[in-house]
Write a structure and sequence with these properties.
alpha/beta; 7 strands; globular; disordered C terminus
Length: 208
């Protein structure tokens, strides 16, 4: 997984806490990289989070790419973000004002179809799945049988796309985080997983 434009690293930390084997955290802001490194150490996941100051050093062919960046930047980065995904991989985007959703969806349409999965306080979060090679229409992707689907009732189960149980758990949890459960927790975690502690906020992004 990649947290692209990681800021304080909250999404990277959440993914590591939720079971991702490896997480790449990329940002061009040196202060963001310092904050991500400090927060990784504070949360005990520094061995899982790889910090990058250049996008080309991040891994490719990944199951999940997340980016919480302003809409205009997301559209500019659309080719790069999609290039980091494996066929069938998921892209999760946040930092998008509700009135910008149509523009962002249009900016990614040649590579994948984005759908809104959460809205809060005027901000929207979107997710889409990169079509496997040879399938250009994401609406015609093969779906798994009910018996093959895991985490019944979760977003990946409802949409019928599961690459592996570990990736599905991270994907479901990150998507559920945007909805809010009314409990005051921003990231759903199991009892043995600590909620990430963040030492730095970024006013240019939507709430993480």
């Amino acid at each position: 997984m990649i947290d692209y434009g990681c800021g304080s690293g909250v999404l990277a930390l959440a993914a590591a806490k939720l079971g991702a084997r490896e997480v790449d955290a990329f940002d061009i802001d040196p202060q963001a990289l310092i904050a991500t490194r400090d927060n990784s150490d504070a949360n005990g996941v520094s061995a899982l989070v790889r910090i990058h100051d250049r996008a080309p050093t991040c891994r490719h062919a990944l199951d999940i790419v997340v980016a919480n960046i302003l809409a205009g930047t997301l559209i500019e980065l659309a080719p790069q973000l999609c290039d980091h995904l494996a066929p069938g991989g998921r892209l999760i985007l946040a930092g998008i004002l509700k009135q910008q959703v149509h523009e962002v969806r249009a900016g990614f349409r040649t590579r994948l179809d984005l759908e809104v999965f959460a809205e809060k306080d005027g901000w929207s979060a979107l997710s889409g799945r990169l079509a496997p090679r040879g399938l250009s229409d994401v609406h015609h992707l093969p779906r798994l049988s009910d018996e093959s689907r895991g985490h019944r009732g979760g977003p990946a189960h409802r949409q019928g796309y599961v690459r592996c149980g570990r990736c599905e758990r991270v994907f479901n949890a990150l998507m559920s985080a945007g909805r809010g459960s009314g409990s005051g927790r921003t990231i759903p975690v199991s009892p043995r997983m600590a909620r990430p502690r963040c030492r730095r906020s970024n006013s240019t992004k939507s709430p993480e």
